[in-house]
Write a structure and sequence with these properties.
It is a single chain. This protein has six helices and six strands; from the N terminus they run ββββααββαααα. It has 140 residues and is an alpha+beta fold. It folds into two domains: 2-67, no CATH class; 78-139, no CATH class. The strands form three sheets. The protein has a two-stranded antiparallel sheet. Strands 3-4 form a two-stranded antiparallel sheet. The radius of gyration is 31 Å and the shape is rod-shaped. It starts with a strand and ends with a helix.
């Protein structure tokens, strides 16, 4: 897999030993009779089309798997932005620590559906987090 010209993702497959693939082909027996049998693929021109079909199917499955991956870069940037401390007018504001119990409690409270309906107020957060002072809730 490589990026061709910076705009096209290209998938290629190289096979050195085609005998690991099994196909239905004519097999000559020791007594001279020819029967149709599932046998290892031979490295010849007649195996080119069945091999191409197998490898195209393999590439298609690989592309389906790659396309299901999520791009975490946007989420990582947002997480970094939330967890970094900020400075505004010579005041420093600490970032959120998602492993801290206090910050986890705050996010649990903020995720309540009632704030989507009624809006967010200091007194409504104080009811759910009584251990915090009104000033600390304002700073948060």
């Amino acid at each position: 897999m490589y990026d061709k010209f910076g705009s096209v993702l290209r998938i290629e497959t190289t096979v050195n030993d085609v005998s690991q693939f099994k196909i239905s082909r004519d097999v000559q027996q020791r007594d001279g009779t020819v029967i149709q049998k599932v046998a290892p693929m031979k490295k010849n021109i007649y195996s080119l089309f069945p091999l191409a079909k197998l490898l195209q199917a393999s590439n298609r499955r690989f592309l389906e798997m790659v396309s299901s991956w999520d791009d975490p870069s946007d989420g990582a940037k947002k997480l970094e932005e939330l967890s970094d401390s900020k400075k505004d007018n010579d005041r420093r504001f600490k970032g959120f620590n998602f492993f801290s119990w206090e910050d986890q409690q705050l996010f649990r409270v903020l995720s309540h559906g009632e704030f989507n309906i009624n809006g967010l107020q200091n007194k409504s957060i104080r009811k759910l987090l009584p251990e915090l002072s009104p000033a600390s809730i304002s700073r948060i």
